[in-house]
Amino acid sequence: MAIRKFDPDKVIWAIEFMAYGEPASKANSRRLVAIGGKPRFIKSKKGLSFVQSFSTQCPMLDPLLDGDLLVAIEIYYASRRPDLDESLILDAMENRIYKNDRQVKERHVYWNLSKDDPRIQIKVAQINLSP
User: Fold this and answer.
1) Would you call 88 helix, strand, or coil by DSSP?
2) Which tens digit of pLDDT belongs to each residue from 40-87?
3) Is 70 exposed, middle or buried (0-12, 13-18, 19+ CB in 10 A)?
4) Measured between alpha carbons, how far is 58 from 87 in angstroms, rounded to an integer?
5) Coil, helix or strand for 12?
6) Model confidence over 88-118: pLDDT tens digits?
7) Element (H, E) at 47
8) Which domains does the chain have, with CATH numbers?
């Protein structure tokens, strides 16, 4: 299987936007609680706060993008501590940019440091995976 070469200058982006704030890692954005006496995992306070903030900054497309998608994300963290994790961002774009994050077939995710200005730059493009 060959690896496709990614040239962001040759991509026709359907949407580009920026959101401010630092995402929680999906692995660290869950907490265990009891609901109806049964253990359940729900988003942590940091995860919920991020999703709420992101939702106010993320455009809502009408119609939503369909088909297979390519996503390029640059995450600027406030410290060196966080792991690179775009999962919560992809989840938060559901029903705003696309119907389901399973449509994302190609990802290019970059870790950056910006102590004074944590943010996320996002680009999404439709792609054709047919031979």
Assistant:
1) helix
2) 666 678 888 899 999 999 999 999 999 999 999 999 999 999 999 999
3) buried
4) 15
5) coil
6) 999 999 999 999 999 999 999 999 999 999 9
7) helix 45-57
8) 8-126 (3.30.1330.70)
